[in-house]
Amino acid sequence: MIEIEGISKRYGETTVVRDVSLTIAPRTVTVIVGTSGSGKTTLLRIINRLVEPTSGTIKLDGEDNRSLPDYELRRRIGYAIQGHGLFPHRTVAQNIATVPTLLGWDRARIEAKVNELLTLFQLDPVAFGPRYPHELSGGQQQRVGVARALAAEPKVLLMDEPFGALDPIIRAKAQDDLLAIQKHFETTIVLVTHDMEEAFHLADRIAVMDKGEVVQYATPAEMLVKPATVFVESLIGAGERPFRLLAIDTVADAVEPGVAEGEAIASSASQREALSMLLWSGRKALPVVGPDGAVIGKVSLDGLAQRAAGPT
Amino acid sequence: MLRLPTLFRLLAFAVLIAFLVQPQWFEPLLRPLVQENAPAIYNQGSLLQLTLLHLRTVAIATAGATVVALALAILVTRRSGAEFLPLSRSLVNIGQTFPPVAVLALAVPIFGFGEKPTLIALFLYGLLPIFENALTGLTTLPPSIMEAARGTGMTGRQRLMKIELPLAMPVILAGIRLSVVISLATATIGSTVAARTLGEVIIAGLQSNNLAFVVQGGLIVAVLAVLIHDALQAAERSLGSRMGR
Question: Does ipTM surpass 0.85 in this model?
Answer without folding.
Answer: no
